[in-house]
Specification:
With about 190 residues, the chain is mainly alpha-helical. Helix 1 packs across helix 2. It has a domain of about 120 residues. About 55% of the residues lie in helices and about 10% in strands. The longest helix is centred in the last third of the chain and has 39 residues. It is built from 5 helices and 2 strands; from the N terminus they run αααββαα.
Length: about 190
Amino acid sequence: MAGSGRQADGSFAPVFAGQRAPFAPGHGVSVTHEARSERSVGVLAERFVSALLADPGTPDYVGEPSYRYAVEAWGRAEAIVALLAEWLSGMDVEAALTEVTESEETERRSKGKTSRQLKSRRVASVVDQLHRHETRAMQLRARLGLDPLSRARLGKDVAASRLDLARLWAEQDAAAGKDSDDSGAEA
């Protein structure tokens, strides 16, 4: 490994001025994306979804194919909340509450005219982002019946529909019985 600076004993000695040491194992400098990282939203969302579907207390309907996209959206929302909360726990409170506005002004001169363009970008505080995603996760939990109140409401709706079906079947049975009585009387 001529020119690398790596010595036979594994140590590093720069070969030229300004040469930096090789990256340590587990570095993130050359990572182009974190699609398979433990900190990735997708990986974490899959864990949330798997845990939900494996939980014996999860309502059966949540595992039905028609709920797939809603459950995946819920998993992403929960993953973002978890990552933001983890990141927030390591931040200074003042920095977490601060909103940042970045501005860039450019000037162009053409044919004796000068035009200026101002671009601004507002970055919401981490606390605002956390609140936004927690609210989204809470709404998705409610839509899926994953909190006590929404589960009770969904259970009530399901029970009401079963009651309506039972009433419908009873009426059909009564009507079928009446028809058979009428046909027996004419004979």
